[in-house]
Each structure stands twice: as structure tokens, then as C-alpha cells.
Design goal:
This protein is of the alpha/beta class. It folds into 2 domains: 69 residues, no CATH class; 191 residues, 3-Layer(aba) Sandwich (Rossmann fold), CATH 3.40.50. 39% of the residues lie in helices and 18% in strands. The protein is built from 10 helices and 10 strands. The strands form 2 sheets. The chain has a 7-stranded mixed sheet. The radius of gyration is 21 Å and the shape is globular. Keywords: Methyltransferase, Transferase. It holds the Pfam family CheR_N.
Length: 289
């Protein structure tokens, strides 16, 4: 009989240590999730994935990954909680203000030459970055000819993004970010405060399309002038990262712009020769072939 309790002093099988058993349990869990629900986490970076899985094991008051597998495969609501725990959003309005300032200075002039602008925010989480882009484009006089596609695999995060409602306690930091990013007005112009929350103005949402999309399993769905994917691929292994870079390269128009996170880079991928840097520090690249 194979022990499923983590922390048992007994080895389940001769030659199988606890770490190997843990990896087998994770492999079986992710394979089951992929086969039953179509979500593929098998090429996520293992150390981060392992931490998040164990966090959810304890959140469900379970004692092993095998027990989590049984519950996830038989209880749809548990699966939805599990998906949310693997894609915990970490974002804010105008996060990394220097990036948005560089975008105003180096990308906006290029966008002015286009008759129509398509922007994809891949892994948009709860939408703060999307609304930041809408505000920036509105201030630069480009929003009316733009369409923003905001996608994420997490439906709960997408729902919050669609609503555009955030905690009022965060507005002080968001206002600071906005001003450092080159904001041209009072930030409070863009939202209405109500009790402990704020809701962003409806006109910011009029050209935004929110939709589910899984970077690991879904394909390209349009041609874009700009793709934002920041602090998402740090959770992927090399194989999945390369796959996603291929998806982005396929989805970008000639001279389209790719924006990555501070700890990410196009270098050391097989698509690096397809881009030239517009800003090396802020990780803004332009597709040249």
C-alpha cells in the first residue's frame, strides 16, 4: 500500500524518497487537471508551483497532494479555488511607472502613425494594468481608435477586471504611480469613490474586450500592434516560455511592440533575432522580422 500522508517516516516503495513521491503526486494532479478541465500547468516552474500547491493543500484542510487531487477531480468548486490559487494576481495601477513613461515616450509616437490600434494584455489578472493603458491612451488622444484585448485564464480575476472596482485604500499608491508615469490630470478624475471602494469610469471600458485565454493551451486569435505580458512567464519553465514567445511572435504585426516584466527578457529564446530593443531597461522590444 502506498502511503499518501506527507510526513510519514515510512518510505512508500523501495528506492522512492519523499521528494520523488511528491513530484509523482504533482505530476498526477496536473495531468488529471489537464485531462478533465483542459488547464495545463505541467510546464510551470516546479519550485513556485510546488509552493502554491502545498499552500492550497493546507487551505483545503488536507494533508497530501493526493488528497487534493481526489477533491479537485470530483468537486468543481474546489477546482475553481485551485485555479485561482495557482494564478494569484499581483498587480497595481501603473506598476513600474518608468515603464509607462517609456511607453509614452517611445511607443506612443509609433502608435500615432496607425489608423487602428490593437493591444493585447496577456495575463491581465484583475485588470489594473489594462485600465492604466486605457487612461494612458485616452490622455494621448489614441483611445478612440484603439481596441484592448484583456485575457486571463482565471475567470474570477476577469470578473473583477470587468467590474473595474478596487479598494479605495490602494488609491494613494496608484495616484503616486500615475503621476510618476507621466499622468496629466488628477488621478481621481478617472474613478468614483463609494464607501471603501472605487469604480473606474465606464468610458474607460468601452474599447476593452475581456476574455478567457490560457497561454499554455490556447492559440493566437488576432494580429496586434502591442502585446503586454509582464511578470507572467517568470512562473513558466523554459519549454513553456519558448512556446509563449512563439505565440507572441506569431500574433505581433511587423514592427509590433512586445512589453515584458522587469525580470523577463527576449534574450536566450529562439525568437531573440526577431526583435530590436526600444528600451532595454524597461524591456520594450519591437518586432523587426
Amino acid at each position: 500500500m502506498v502511503a499518501t500522508e506527507r510526513g510519514s517516516d515510512e518510505l512508500p516503495l523501495a528506492g522512492t524518497d519523499k521528494n520523488e513521491l511528491e513530484n509523482i503526486e504533482i505530476e498526477l494532479l496536473l495531468s488529471g487537471v489537464h485531462r478533465l478541465y483542459g488547464y495545463d500547468f505541467r510546464n510551470y516552474a516546479l519550485p513556485s508551483l510546488k509552493r502554491r500547491i502545498w499552500h492550497h493543500v493546507h487551505a483545503e484542510n488536507l494533508s497530501s497532494i493526493s488528497a487534493l487531487q481526489e477533491k479537485v477531480l470530483h468537486d468543481r468548486t474546489c477546482f475553481e479555488r485551485f485555479i485561482y490559487s495557482l494564478s494569484i494576481p499581483v498587480t497595481e495601477m501603473f506598476r513600474d511607472p518608468g515603464l509607462f513613461m517609456a511607453f509614452r515616450q517611445k511607443v506612443v509616437p509609433l502608435l500615432r502613425t496607425y489608423p487602428y490600434i490593437r493591444i493585447w494584455h496577456a495575463g491581465c489578472s484583475t485588470g489594473e494594468e489594462v485600465y492604466s493603458m486605457a487612461i494612458l491612451l485616452q490622455e494621448e488622444g489614441l483611445y478612440d481608435k484603439a481596441r484592448i484585448y484583456a485575457t486571463d485564464m482565471n475567470n474570477r480575476s476577469l470578473q473583477q477586471a470587468k467590474e473595474g472596482v478596487y479598494e479605495i485604500s490602494k488609491m494613494k499608491q496608484y495616484t503616486k504611480n500615475y503621476l510618476e508615469a507621466g499622468g496629466k490630470h488628477a488621478f481621481s478624475k478617472y474613478y468614483t469613490a463609494k464607501y471603501n471602494s472605487v469604480i473606474f469610469q465606464p468610458d474607460l471600458r468601452k474599447n476593452i474586450i475581456f476574455a478567457e485565454h490560457n497561454l499554455a493551451t490556447d492559440t493566437s486569435f488576432n494580429e496586434f500592434n502591442v502585446i503586454f505580458c509582464r511578470n507572467v512567464m517568470i512562473y513558466f519553465n523554459d519549454e513553456l516560455r519558448d512556446h509563449v514567445h512563439g505565440l507572441f511572435c506569431e500574433s505581433l504585426s511587423r514592427f509590433g511592440v512586445l512589453v515584458l516584466g522587469a525580470k523577463e527578457s527576449i534574450h536566450f529564446t529562439r525568437y531573440s533575432d526577431s526583435y530590436e530593443p526600444l528600451d532595454r531597461v524597461e524591456k520594450i522590444y519591437r518586432k523587426v522580422k
